[in-house]
Task: structure prediction
Amino acid sequence: MDGIRSLGYKNPTPIQSQAIPVVMEGRDLIGNAQTGTGKTGAFLLPVLNFIVTKKTKGIQCLILAPTRELVKQIDEQIDGLGYFSGARSVTIYGGGIGGDIWEKQKNALVEGVDIVVATPGRLMAHMKMGYVDFSNLSMLVLDEADKMLDMGFLPDIEEILRSLPAKRQNLMFSATMPSKIEMLAKRMLDNPFQIKIQVSKPAERITQRIFLVNDRAKIPLLTTILKSLDFTTLVVFTSTKSAVNEIVRSLKKANLPAEGISSDLEQNQREELVRQFKSSKFTILVATDVMSRGIDIDGISHVINFDMPPDPEDYVHRIGRTARGSTATGVGISFVNEQDMGRLLAIEKLIEKPITQLPTPPQFGPFPVYGERKRRPDPRGGKPNSGPGRKPGNFRKPNTPSSGDR
Result:
C-alpha cells in the first residue's frame, strides 16, 4: 500500500477491481481489456502481495511478454509498486548468448529472485543452459498473449510450460481474444474466470480522425499538421523501418523536434531515446510497431498513423498510447491512401463505428478518388466492403467531412 500511495494511485481501474479479488482467491484468470486500462497493476498487485506474505525462496512468479519494451515497462511497475516490499525481479531479454547483459541475467537467475519478467526466446536460451530453477514457482502470467502468438512464440511458450510445476496459478492478459488465444487458454488454464472489458476498442476518450491523402503528400501534410497542432508529446507510427528515417529527416528540416526509433537501433540506443522522450528533450517520436505495445508514457496527447497498420488490433494498440489513465484524453489521426481503404473498413468493423474524415487541405492534392468501385473482400471476413453505417462499395467523397461520430 505504501508503494501504491507513493505512485499517487487512489482508485482501481475496472480491470483491477474485477481481477484482483479473483487472483487473490488463487483462481486461474483470463483478463481482456483495452490497452491503457491498468492490466499490469491488475496482476502485479496480487503477485507482490503473494510474495510479501509467503516469503518463499526462489523464483515464485514468471511473467512472459512479447517485447523487450513491454518487459521493461512491467519491471518499472514492479520497482514502483514493490519498492517498499523488498521483492526482487530480473528482466530477461536481449540478443545472442554471452556479454555483460547475459552474465547479469544469468547471475540473477542463479542467485535467485522473486519475479522473472522475460521474453520467451531469451528465457529459453537461459533455460537450455540448465541453471534456471522453477521448482518453487507458484504463478505464471502471460501478458499481451495475443501479440506473443502473432510473433510466433507459441512453440517457446509450450516448451516453457512443460518446464514449470504442474500445480500453479495461471493468469492470461490480453487486449484481444482471437480463437488461437482461446485454444491456448483451454490447454493452459484450469477452469479460468474470465473478465472482458471493452475488448478490441479504443478508449472513448480518444478522438479519432482520418485524412485521405496520396503517399507523396503524406510528409508535407504531416509537417503542416504538426506545425499547427497544439500537443504536448506525440508519436508518429509507420509500418516500415525505412520510412522512420525519411520522416525524421523531413521533420528536422522543418525545425520540428523529432527522433526515430525502430528495431534497427541497439537496445541501449532505444532505451536512451525513450528516456529523452519521457523527459521532453524532444516531443515527436517516430516509431514502428515495435513500440505500439511497449511504450507506456503519461502525457502523450496525440498519435498519428502515417500509414494504416495491416492488423486492425494494431490500430487499437497504436492509438492506445494516448489517453492513458482514467481521466486522460487524446487524439488519434490516421492517413489513409486508396490501398488502405480495406484496412480502414476492417478497423471500423472492429471498433464498431466509422472514423470521422477531416478535409485534406487543397494544396496536398490531387486526391485519391474512391466513390463506387469493385467489391473487395473484407480482410476480416464478412460481406465485401461492408462497414458500420456504410453501404458496400460506397465511400465518403474526398475532402468532405462526415456527419460526425455516429
In short: Residues 153 and 382 are 29 Å apart (CA to CA). The first helix runs from residue 2 to 6. Confidence is low (pLDDT under 50) at residues 371-406. The domain at 206-364 is CATH 3.40.50.300 (Rossmann fold).
